[in-house]
Amino acid sequence: MFDKLEYPELNVKEVIKEIEKRSQRKTTNINKFLSDETKRSLVDEERKYEKFSSELFKLKPCSEIGDYDKNVANKIYDGVFKKKIREEYMSQYIGTSCPICGQTLGVELDHVLPKSKFVQFTVTPINLVPICHNCNYWKGDNYGNTYANSSFHPFYEDFSSLNGLHFNFNFCNKTSPIEIIYDKKKTNPKFIHIMKEYDMEGFLTIQAVKKLRQIEHDLCSIKVSGTEKMSVDNFQKTLNAMTEYIGLSSWEKIFICDLMKVNRKFYSVLEF
């Protein structure tokens, strides 16, 4: 979740060359894209993007570069780029999980700075991130005008530690026993924003409730199979052992640690 991705091998200059090479028929839109002014501007804009990679909100929206406007850019992207360049670009990320949720494959390309506002980055590889359909849907055309409310960029950022995130338990509430909370002193404000922007709070709450039910089932199975009542100490040791499971994600480790902090309440709810 919120993992860093390998930097793309293609750059916009190479994309331009590929489009020029693979466009057998030079349409009006292709000619506008391949004009010297457009090519030079796209390469210059890519340099600005790299320069402001940690402050992309400072880049100004642009609706046209000479004759290369939003309409032309969309036709280039939906046409020759998708048909002839996209597959090559995505081959670098085959089998890679969505860097946002980490659950499904990243099969869609998200324009971090949306092409509806930033025509200059419509086919710029460093602005194209492979993510899943759901995360792409939630993000939409958002991009932010400050660091704190800007979108997550996995080519430059890594929030996979989920630093500052915690789980608050209310075992008496059977329908909503878990709430996502943050330690405001330790949490990057941007992390809180992207958790909400991609609806990761809702997603993670659902996953955490499933995890809680699984642990309840496993512990009750131990209780049923045991000949003696499980003590509080043994109960805590059992929970502690769960943190050593191989393959636990960052959120699962945080979840188990937070659950151990309220292990006596959890113990009483299970009625050992």
**Uncertain spans, ≥5 residues at pLDDT below 50?**
none
End-to-end distance: 35 Å
Proportion in β-strands: 5-15%
Task: Tell how many strands the DSSP assignment holds.
Answer: 6
User: What is the average per-residue confidence, as pLDDT, rounded to a whole number?
Assistant: 92
Helix content: 40-55%
Give the spatial strand order of the biggest sheet: 1-2
Q: How many alpha or pi helices?
A: 10
Shape: elongated
Task: Report the sheet with the most strands, covering strand number, pairing sense and barrel closure.
Answer: 2 strands, antiparallel
Number of domains: 2
SS class: mainly alpha
What radius of gyration results from the CA coordinates?
24 Å
What is the H/E string? HHHEEHEEHEEHHHHH
Structure, explained:
This protein is mainly alpha-helical and 272 residues long. The protein has 2 domains: 12-139, no CATH class; 165-270, no CATH class. 47% of the residues lie in helices and 8% in strands. It has helices at residues 12-22, 28-33, 36-51, 70-90, 133-139, 189-197, 200-225, 232-242, 250-261, 263-270, and strands at residues 64-65, 68-69, 108-111, 128-131, 165-169, 178-182. The protein has a two-stranded antiparallel ribbon with strand order 1-2. Strands 3-4 form a two-stranded antiparallel sheet. A hairpin with a 2-residue loop joins strand 1 (64-65) and strand 2 (68-69). It starts with 11 loop residues before the first helix and ends with a helix.
